[in-house]
Amino acid sequence: MKIKISNSLIAAHIFCAILFPLAARAAEFNPHLIISDNDLTAHQAMSVKDVQDFLDSQKSGIGSMKFTDIDGSDRTAAEIIVAAAAEERISPRYILVMLQKEQSLISSKNPTQKQLDWATGYGICDACSMDDPSLQKFRGFATQVRRSAGIMRYYYDNVQFNWIKRAGQQYSIDRTTVTPQSNATAFLYTYTPHISGNKNFWKIWSQWFTNFYPDGSVIKVAGENSIYLIENGKRRPFMNKAAFVSRFSESAILPVEQADLAIYPLGTNISIPNYSIVRSPSGMMFMLIDAVKHPIASTAVFKTIGYNPGEVEDISDEELSTYTSGTFITTASMYPLGAVIQEKKSKQLYYVKNGVRYVIPSADVAKANFPNKKIISLDLKQIAKFEFDPTKVVSFRDGTLLSMKGSREVYVVSAGKLRLIPNDNVFNNLGYQKKNVIETNEQALTSFPLGEPVTDLVGKTQVAAR
Q1: Both 320 and 185 in a single domain?
Q2: Which residue, 292, 287, 270, is CA-closest to 226?
Q3: What is the CA radius of gyration of the chain?
């Protein structure tokens, strides 16, 4: 069942998708890691329908063509690609990238016979002629697709041969020392022994098939200890467990490939736990609450908060600059650490910090954002003592998965916006878990501006929506 929020929300979603296209992220080519072995061997990554939908979305000429396969049967390009991928246990995504890298067959609307005959460049070396009689056995779209998939499987099955490059060994390629970090990367250099050609492969792969994680995502490569927060297109490493657990639970971690992690430039460290008091190089003290730094007005105020001098941590100006500036904490501040209060009669929830109260639109928000804070029940007269700020609604943090009660449609909060996860493919490909989806009400959802739907491909919407 599709979510029914309101016509205005749906219209706003479409409006935002038109006006705010997904910003391109700068990613740097790493010659030592082009793609992972999991990427290259994911032979079930796309079905025939997925490949056909992808070709159609690119307006590729081969999408409407049929070819004679090696067994004499006439098949579509999508059928041949998926069949070759399944037989050789090589990803159909790899084949699609090779078709584009070698002969621009994905972007060509009217490919020439030469493009089709030498679709993946199999059997053609720098000094070879396509007219060489000895190479004609490699001619033909189906043969090229199957041979290019087959040679990668051959590399995996015979990696012990010295002429096949392998992970962990150093090679001089175009006067550059390259140490492949995956066998997939080594095999790409075996197939195309040039950095420029493999950089082109990486550009196409990154454009089409590299996962994109929304701001607020917590990611980790399997088998490694480092955990990162994606923020403003960068990966910010948590430097210790306390810094992580004061903000997230382990269930929030999304498993990623090393190649996916590598596309994010390294951001500033996250080394200070939430609700810490820190001292800047100038001697100014701040309390850090979520992404906000609250200056502490004086030593007298510090003493009233209940911390001791040994709990103050030094922080660099660079890391301090990642926090936005908040209100001063003074001796008159009520609840400087923040509190959740509820009006006894109406049951309306508020978050109070430094004497100012903000609306909490639902109990789901209070539970998700402040799991360790006991709700304080007050009457209307007591609540009125706190200054009210109607311009800010306390809502779910970035990275939170949301759905309206009774609906199967799921959103993620990213950069303060609500972004639709369009289908189960995207949800699963990004490593999300159903148990982390919070069911909430319409008021909580509509408190967010709408952003673009989430995609698991850089710069591309999911082409196989179901």
Answers
A1: no
A2: 270
A3: 27
Task: Dump pLDDT digits (tens) for 87-118.
Answer: 999 999 999 999 999 999 999 999 999 999 99
Greater model confidence, 33 or 444: 33
In a domain, 224, yes or no: no
| Cα dihedral value 250, 252, 253, 254, nearest 10 | 150
Mean of pLDDT values over 338-364: 90
Which of 446, 410, 439 lies closest to 10, judged by CA? Answer: 446
Selection from 38, 152, 97 nearest residue 429 by Cα: 38
SS3 content of the chain, % helix, strand, coil (to 5): 35, 20, 45
Is 142 domain-assigned? yes
What is the 8-class DSSP label of residue 119? Answer: T
- Containing H/E element for 414? strand 410-414
Residue with tokens 């799921």: 410
Do residues 421 and 244 lie in contact, with contact meaning Cβ atoms separated by under 8 Å? no
Domain shared by 287 and 347, yes or no: no
Q: What pLDDT sits at residue 459?
A: 37
Task: Count CA within 13 A, CB hemisphere, residue 216.
Answer: 20
Phi-psi region of 238 (alpha: psi -120 to 50; beta: other; left: phi over 0): beta
**Measuring CA to CA, how many Å separate 346 from each of 68, 259, 378?**
72, 51, 11
Examine the pLDDT at 18 and tell me if it is beyond 70: no
What pLDDT is attached to residue 3? 33
C-alpha 55: how far from its chain's center? Answer: 24
Do 396 and 369 form a contact (C-beta atoms < 8 A)?
yes
218 within domain boundaries: no
* Residue 100 structure tokens: 């584009």
Domain with 382 in it? 339-393
Q: Which residue has the tokens 């967010």?
A: 448
Helix, strand, or coil here: 34?
coil
β-pair partners for 378: 343
Task: Check pLDDT > 80 for residue 462.
Answer: no
Minimum mean pLDDT range among 8-12, 143-147, 213-217 = 8-12
